[in-house]
Write a structure and sequence with these properties.
This protein is mainly beta and about 425 residues long. The chain contains three helices and 23 strands. The chain is globular and about 80 Å long.
């Protein structure tokens, strides 16, 4: 369990500008004041967040409280049916800066997910899935010429479904080398083309009529994806506890001190969506943007990630660029900890996290194993927004103390960008 609190109280709206003399500190959103509690288990996750506005010149969505409970996707009995549950409750109120025109609602939501693994068409793997969401609101948006009274005590429902079809192909390469400390024992190339279809029905109550609506837009999309993996086997030392357990089971056979474990060396993903039907002013029957992602893990202490997107079509006479965005991250870990660079989190600015499976969070960043350090260098490029570099360093000094820093360097910012 972890408890995180963050409080910021300013005397006036110009305090940060006068103290720091940097316009970016005024343009960026101020960190919210909150109290967060997160509990996690291999089978579930629970979070509770209380959020309060401390500065009247800020617009903040207060929460008294915002609770969420979710279970991991689990198999039902001995069947190939899997399910997961999400339940949330929130008492929300938007406090508007220098105004009494606030918005409030109590919201309770339940979501149930189902998926089923089909092996009827081997070697093609089919996975149909569906999801049902029901959300209760104490009221919708009130006021206005068309809705002077609005509605109270209403339920918004939404359902979705889809199916994934994938095929896994691989080839082995008999390569064994320890050049540059790569520790390679054979190479395996895995190719997995996937076609998926997803349909989301519009909610029974449109989000335009709700404050703090949870439902997504209605969609009908195909997605084509090709995943490439380069894998090898590396020698890892067997722990003393595992050796003792093996000796207890079979004392007559010698127990090895090392074993070979399959690991990924690189992953390359190409994907493109296709919208079958558009809604409102959005076009349907067209391809979306190409997306590319490359991850490499040459050594356990190093990870290099890069991703970019490329438009599938351009408007005639426009000045659209050939690259929508490009990101690159270099992550290194070291010290006495047990996690590798592949397991390490992505570079991220400190922020509130209400819920997340896995390692517990402090100020939005995962707690590292004791004695381990984390260094992340990143670069972000967007022709229509800004170009910046980021630096993150964290070090778990002891069981109770972890220090960290996050720095952002903006090289170029486009006027009117997002």
């Amino acid at each position: 369990m972890s408890v995180v609190t963050h409080l910021q109280k300013y005397s006036d709206v110009d305090f940060r500008k006068e103290l720091l003399f940097r316009e970016e500190f005024v343009e960026d959103d101020n960190p919210e004041s909150f109290l967060s509690l997160v509990m996690s288990d291999p089978n579930y996750s629970f979070s509770a967040v209380a959020r309060k506005r401390l500065n009247r010149f800020e617009t903040v969505t207060e929460a008294y409280p915002d609770l969420a409970f979710s279970t991991r996707t689990q198999r039902i009995g001995d069947t190939n049916l899997f399910t997961g549950t999400n339940v949330s409750f929130a008492n929300l109120q938007t406090k508007t800066a220098h105004s009494t025109n606030d918005t409030d609602v109590i919201r309770a939501s339940w979501t149930q997910d189902f998926s089923y693994g089909l092996n009827l068409f081997q070697p093609i793997q089919l996975t149909p899935s569906m999801s049902v969401q029901q959300t209760y609101y104490t009221k919708d948006k009130q006021g206005g010429a068309e809705r002077p009274q609005g509605r109270r005590n209403l339920i918004s429902g939404q359902s979705s479904g889809g199916i994934d079809a994938s095929l896994t192909l691989f080839r082995m390469f008999p390569i064994v080398t320890d050049m540059l400390g790569l520790n390679i024992h054979q190479l395996r190339h895995v190719l997995t083309p996937t076609v998926s279809y997803g349909y989301t029905h519009p909610p029974t109550v449109p989000n335009d009529n709700l404050s703090f609506g949870l439902a997504g837009e209605g969609t009908s999309k195909l997605k084509f994806e090709v995943a490439n993996k380069l894998q090898t086997k590396r020698r890892v030392q067997i722990s003393r506890a595992d050796r003792l357990a093996q000796e207890a089971q079979d004392a007559s056979s010698p127990i090895p001190t090392f074993s070979l474990r399959s690991v990924d060396l690189a992953r390359f993903l190409i994907a493109i969506p296709y919208s079958l039907r558009g809604r409102q002013n959005k076009q349907g029957g067209r391809l979306g943007d190409w997306s590319f992602s490359l991850e490499t893990f040459p050594w356990p202490w190093l990870r290099l990630d890069t991703s970019w997107s490329y438009p599938s079509h351009f408007l005639k006479g426009s000045r659209d660029t050939r690259l929508n965005n490009w990101n690159v991250d270099l992550v290194m870990v070291g010290g006495r900890g047990a996690i590798t660079a592949e397991q390490a989190p992505n570079i991220q600015a400190p922020k509130q996290r209400s819920q997340e499976m896995g390692p517990q969070l402090t100020r939005g960043l995962p707690l590292l194993p004791q004695g381990q350090w984390y260094l992340g260098l990143g670069h972000r490029y967007s022709p229509n927004d800004k170009t910046e570099s980021v630096l993150q360093f964290d070090w778990r000094l002891s069981e109770k103390w972890q220090i960290g820093t996050f720095n952002r360097f903006t090289w170029k910012e486009v006027a009117g960008g997002s």
